[in-house]
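Chain X:
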Amino acid sequence: MRADAQRNYDRIVEVAREVFREQGYDASLDEIAKRAGVGPGTLYRHFPARENLLDAVLKFWVDKVDVATEKALAHEGGDRAVLLNWFEEYVALISQHKGAPAKITSAIGNPDSPITTKCQVLTAANDRIIDRLRADGALRDEVDTIQVCRLVGGIATVADQGDLDADAVRPMLAVVADGLLR
């Protein structure tokens, strides 16, 4: 990529991150182009679909998922505490931008989604927690990673759309955790 094209790409991603944080993932792409100082054609040349731009914005997020997973695995306490702590981390990870929980949760398990690689990172992280708890004999046998991601993502979506704080979300996460544990 030419140096000027790379600058445009980087600027579009930076501005998109700001706009998505302010307005959610359904924000106007034309506004993003305008704020980035590029024309709509430049934006669409780099990002033919909204999901492609979302994918670029979420790249920095992958590192945060890894850190959160390690933190959750190192969490001291019983199996329920580990699971609840992970669920809170999970909700925080997918709730960094308005509208993100619904977008990410609906893409989980969809191999055709442009953000499928990010979803795979998230489900792999969830797998690590589930595998640990399964090895401890703490989980019901039928617990499935995709289902857990969708359940917790559903709660995150409700919290996002209802502007609920962590204190309102935690009891809902506890219900899910209690349903998964033996």
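Chain Y:
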Amino acid sequence: MIRPILIHPDPRLKKAAAPVPDLSDDLRALADDMLETMYDAPGIGLAAPQIGQNHRLIVMDCVKDEGEAPRPYVMFNPQVIASSEETSVYEEGCLSIPEQYAEVTRPAETTVRWIDRNGAEQEETFGALWATCVQHEIDHLEGKLFIDYLTPMRRQMITRKMQKLKREKARD
């Protein structure tokens, strides 16, 4: 089921998400809904707070090439356990901040530990776009948006655009 995505500014996007104590069929169904919502948007990552769910759950799939098999990840309670000193810069966007993009500097590689949909602990090191995406989505779980890395003036400008977009959508 495709879920509505919250648009910034929304106080739910600024709250730290609660850890997932136990996996349930409801949480697995939520993960499936999040993947469907992410692919439909279209996007490469989505965090539960973006659809109004206060759970430490993210989904992502950075495969973009047509004909290449999708590689969806479902991560419960993901945490960065190591990051490279080397950094990379990507132009980031966000499904909760539509049509706004900015360059953000993050560690070029990051190692993440999480619980998969079967309850098994996983650990993987991500690089390139995958590293940026997983860090961006984990930030959402802390109530942090990519615009929080920008200058206050740029952040205000984007926030005003989002407020205007929300007013326009409310009128439709």
